[in-house]
Write a sequence for this structure.
């Protein structure tokens, strides 16, 4: 078989509400999730020997990890356990996204690995519950596996795909410092979730009917919802405030907000040209920041 390429697009939380903390420490969320045109990329070259390597501008940022600790390696092993005898091979991850950035990079990489394995094993893929495997790997992996706009609820396992969403001109900016998701949630110190919410289970996937067909409708929907982690993330990582200020001061920026637990922030712009021009100015003023003009959908 020829090498199989799978994109691992950045996940962006347009909104993020924290509904409470479960007794097991996980937090119940409600988030409108979209995906960027930019991201990492995973290649599977089918063969008899299994290997995993990382290339790209942020490969060294991952740092040395014990064998099997990377989410891609865990995804490979989980697929092997679910269906022994799968056709695997050499996995190469091109790491283009900053690490610990609030863009779901590791989860997107693991999801890309699962999709690549499914493509390499079409005869077996239909009998494997890939979403069940994804749920064992982390809260963001199920939505990244689906790879389409969705309302995400529970701890990430309850997904309601959106019927449509326009492409949103955007600018992603990361201040160049990692921020631990765990540290942000611990500092938030959210109250316990109500008993009925703590016991929530997927309801069967009833779709959220949101006819967001224009940029203006998306803005109207997400403006009042915000990101409950933004204030806490900015307190733990002051450069977040500088990033948000730079975005909000840019011509054509209609909304600037933290993505996920940060420190990456996004700005939504009137058009792609405005996003690109803002990116050029911000990158020139802050050469140590990661700046990327892209589309979200």
């Amino acid at each position: 078989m020829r090498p199989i390429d799978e994109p691992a697009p950045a996940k962006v939380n347009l909104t993020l509400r924290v509904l409470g903390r479960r007794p097991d420490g996980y937090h119940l969320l409600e988030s409108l999730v979209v995906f960027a045109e930019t991201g990492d990329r995973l290649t599977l070259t089918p063969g008899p020997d299994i290997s995993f390597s990382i290339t790209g501008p942020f490969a060294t940022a991952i740092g040395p990890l014990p064998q099997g600790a990377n989410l891609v390696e865990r995804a490979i092993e989980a697929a092997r356990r679910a269906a022994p005898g799968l056709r695997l091979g050499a996995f190469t991850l091109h790491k283009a996204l900053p690490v610990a950035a609030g863009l779901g990079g590791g989860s997107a990489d693991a999801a890309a690995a699962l999709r690549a394995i499914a493509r390499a094993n079409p005869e077996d893929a239909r009998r494997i519950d890939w979403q069940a495997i994804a749920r064992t790997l982390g809260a963001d992996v199920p939505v990244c596996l689906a790879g389409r706009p969705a309302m995400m609820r529970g701890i990430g396992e309850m997904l309601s795909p959106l019927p449509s969403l326009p492409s949103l001109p955007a600018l992603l900016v990361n201040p160049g410092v990692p921020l631990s998701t765990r540290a942000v949630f611990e500092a938030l110190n959210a109250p316990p979730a109500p008993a009925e919410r703590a016991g929530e289970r997927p309801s069967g996937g009833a779709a959220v009917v949101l006819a967001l067909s224009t940029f203006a409708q998306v803005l109207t929907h997400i403006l009042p919802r915000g990101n409950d982690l933004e204030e806490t993330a900015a307190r733990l990582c002051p450069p977040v405030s500088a990033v948000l200020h730079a975005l909000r001061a840019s011509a054509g920026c209609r909304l600037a907000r933290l993505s996920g637990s940060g420190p990456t922030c996004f700005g939504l712009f009137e058009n792609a040209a405005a996003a690109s021009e803002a990116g050029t100015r911000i990158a020139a003023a802050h050469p140590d920041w990661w700046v990327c003009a892209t589309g979200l959908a």
